[in-house]
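Private note to self, pasted from the team thread so I don't lose it. C-alpha cells:
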C-alpha cells in the first residue's frame, strides 16, 4: 500500500492552509492501552499538533485523543506526548531539514493501515498572509471553472 492510504480517522486541514508541504513521511505511533480504541472511534484531534526531533527520536506534541468511555482507571492523558516510529536515516534527514529556517514537522493525517495506526508527517514551510490569500484565490478560480464546466455539461 502506498503511504497515506488507509481508513482516514483524522485530517489536519489547517496545515494545508498555513504551510507549504514540501515532503511527506509515513510514521507509526506508540500508543497506550485504550488510545487505539478511541482513535478507531474517531475521537482524535490533530489541529494544534506538531512534531519535533528530540534526542534522536521523533516526538508528537499536542495531539488530543479523548479518553475511552469504557476505559475506567486505565485511561490515558489526552494530550500526552507520543513517540513516532521512523527509520534512523529519516530522522536524521528530518533533523537536518528542520534546522533550516522556516521548516516544521506537521501531522497531516491519522489513518489505519493493515490494523496499525499511522501518521502522515509533512515537512512544511510556513506561508505568509499574501500566500494564503493567493491560494484562496486559486481555489476559488478552480471552483468557478468546475462550476462553469458542469453547467455547460447540463445543456
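Design output:
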Amino acid at each position: 500500500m502506498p503511504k497515506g492510504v488507509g481508513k482516514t480517522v483524522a485530517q489536519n486541514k489547517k496545515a494545508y492552509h498555513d504551510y507549504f508541504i514540501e515532503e511527506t513521511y509515513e510514521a507509526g505511533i506508540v500508543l497506550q492501552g485504550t488510545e487505539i480504541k478511541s482513535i478507531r472511534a474517531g475521537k482524535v484531534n490533530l489541529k494544534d499538533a506538531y512534531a519535533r526531533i528530540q534526542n534522536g527520536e521523533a516526538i508528537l506534541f499536542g495531539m488530543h485523543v479523548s479518553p475511552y468511555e469504557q476505559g475506567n482507571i486505565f485511561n490515558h492523558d489526552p494530550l500526552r506526548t507520543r513517540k513516532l516510529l521512523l527509520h534512523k536515516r529519516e530522522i536524521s534527514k528530518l533533523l537536518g531539514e528542520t534546522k533550516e529556517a522556516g521548516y516544521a514537522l506537521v501531522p497531516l493525517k491519522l489513518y489505519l493501515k493493515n490494523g496499525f495506526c499511522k501518521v502522515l508527517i509533512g515537512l512544511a514551510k510556513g506561508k505568509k498572509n499574501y500566500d494564503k490569500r493567493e491560494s484562496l484565490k486559486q481555489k476559488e478560480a478552480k471552483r468557478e471553472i468546475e462550476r462553469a464546466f458542469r453547467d455547460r455539461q447540463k445543456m
